[in-house]
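>> received
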Amino acid sequence: MKVVLVVPPDTPITGGNFVSAERLKTGLSRLGIETHVEKFHSRMQGYDVYHAWNAVHVGKRLLEHNIDPQKIVVTWTGTDLWGDWAKNPQPIRRALSPLQHQVVFTPNAKKRLLADAPEWDDIVEVIGPSVDETLFYPADSPHTREWPPLVVIAGGVRPVKRSAWAIDLVETARSRLAYDFQLAVLGPVRDFEEWERVIQASKGKPWVHIVGEIPKDSMREWYQRATIVLNSSRIEGVSNALMEAMSSQALVVATNIHGNRYLIEHGNTGFLFDDTEGLVEAFRFVMENPEQSERIRRNARMRILSRHLPSHEAQAYAAIYRRMAWSLCSRGCGL
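>> returned
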């Protein structure tokens, strides 16, 4: 069996879909499945399974380029569901109707999808994403964390990540709490208008450090150094950056949205906030309650170890591929 994991054409190598596809490729290879990762292009041929990492920007386009629907599985990764589908589901529903295999990350995501396509109940599966806990692990000592306290925001700079808003949030926390928080903005530029907002918001603020794109292998060090890892997103599927941070035993403060609620139990594995006041209170707790904060960090890593192992993710997808292969073999595919 020859599988291709297809990501949107504008995805950088540090982007969430690319990271997820590379991680799954490693897991599938360990199961003996030949797997490739490609950015979508119009001449994709020669694979037994086409796995689209984004239902709208890859899955729909594979169908438009006459790939056999029986060979396609799509994973709804975040903006496709909570953005594209939420705005206007019916054209997407019609376009994807030939597909027999769809995956979402969370039960709540499946519920949202079925609200507009109830007939898909039998073809939508829930497979939680994973993180390599051998790459993202805790520091040997809490003294690794920096002073003044470092806040890290990780992810491509684009509107849904609201990186410019993160600067405003940390500025308010600095003013209210009188701590010299330093903010490191990590990630590639995905949208130049949002990038310009980040540049403007950071002017005259020497405590804002725009670091740019960081190799995946170097991210663990940033998570270990951080007092807080901040997520200011408007939309998330399940954030790779948050899973990596939690696996590294970082303390996460994140917006109270569907994908983040799946990972974070408020006050137990991290903190969720609805507005600026909620963020300030979360920052205050972290700074004033070091022992409880260490407990939350440990709980966060245990959450990852108990539910997000790469081997489980790979086995779940491999089972789908095998069902697809058997279905094709009934038509004489020769697999």
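>> The two ends are 7 Å apart (CA to CA).
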